[in-house]
TrEMBL record:
SUPFAM superfamilies linked: Isochorismatase-like hydrolases
Top-rank lineage group of the source organism: Bacteria
Gene3D superfamilies to which the protein is assigned, alphabetical: Isochorismatase-like
Assigned keywords, A-Z: Hydrolase, Plasmid
Biological source species: Rhizobium acidisoli
Hydrolase among keywords: yes
Name of this chain's protein: Isochorismatase family protein
C-alpha cells in the first residue's frame, strides 16, 4: 500500500469546508527570520511576495489580516524552556529590529500584531478572541517557519474551532525537506494545503457573491 493509500484508508486528507468569513494570519515574517544578516533568518522573499498578494487583496475587501512576532523581555531569556532548546531564538528581544514585521509584507498601521513567546500564535495570546470577535470561520495561515510556528499555529487553529487553509507557496522554512514534510502532514491532518492562486480566486469569489 502506498503512503497516500495508507493515509486515505485511515480517513485522513479530507477536504476542509470553506466558510464565508475568512481571515489571514501571517506568522513571524519578521526581520529576525527574513533578513539573512541574522543567523536565525533565511531568504523568504518569494514567499513574502506571494503572501502580500493575498493580504493586499484581503485588506481591500475588509478581510482581517493579523501578523505575529516572537519577542522576549530580557528577564524571560533564562526562564523559558524553548530557549534552552532553540538558543538562537533568544536574539528576538523586545525593541530590536529582529522582532519587527518585515516592511516587504506590506503591513499597514491598522493591522493587529500578536506578540507571542512560543511557536503557536494562539498559545497565551488574544488571537482566538480577535478572530472570533470579527466572525472569522476560515483561517488562512502563511508565514515562517513551515515546520515550526506555522505548523503549531495551524494545529491550534483547528483545535480552536477554525477551518484552516495553508497556501504552501506563502510558507517558508530554513530547509526544503522539513518544509515539504510538514506541508504534507498538515494537509493530511489539519488543513487544506493549497497555493496563493487558489486562495486569491476564493477571496475574489466571496467578494463577487457577498
Amino acid at each position: 500500500m502506498s503512503q497516500q493509500e495508507t493515509y486515505k484508508t485511515a480517513g485522513f486528507g479530507q477536504p476542509v469546508p470553506r466558510g464565508m468569513r475568512p481571515g489571514i494570519v501571517v506568522v513571524d515574517f519578521t526581520y529576525g527570520f527574513t533578513d539573512t544578516i541574522y543567523p536565525t533568518a533565511a531568504d523568504m522573499s518569494p514567499e513574502i511576495a506571494a503572501t502580500r498578494r493575498l493580504t493586499d487583496l484581503a485588506r481591500a475587501r475588509g478581510i482581517p489580516v493579523i501578523y505575529t512576532t516572537i519577542a522576549y523581555h530580557q528577564g524571560e531569556l533564562t526562564m523559558l524552556p524553548w530557549l534552552r532548546k532553540a538558543t538562537g531564538m533568544a536574539a528576538l528581544v523586545e525593541g530590536s529590529r529582529l522582532v519587527e514585521i518585515d516592511a516587504a509584507t506590506g503591513i499597514q498601521p491598522g493591522d493587529p500584531i500578536i506578540t507571542k513567546k512560543g511557536a503557536s500564535a494562539f498559545h497565551g495570546t488574544a488571537l482566538a478572541a480577535l478572530l472570533t470577535g470579527v466572525g472569522v470561520d476560515t483561517l488562512v495561515v502563511a508565514g515562517a517557519t513551515t515546520s515550526g510556528c506555522v505548523r503549531a499555529t495551524v494545529v491550534d487553529a483547528v483545535q480552536s474551532g477554525f477551518n484552516v487553509l495553508v497556501p504552501g507557496d506563502c510558507c517558508a522554512d530554513r530547509a526544503q525537506r522539513p518544509h515539504e514534510a510538514n506541508l504534507y502532514d498538515m494537509h493530511q491532518k489539519y488543513a487544506d494545503v493549497t497555493d496563493a492562486d487558489d486562495i486569491e480566486r476564493w477571496l475574489i469569489s466571496l467578494s463577487d457573491h457577498g
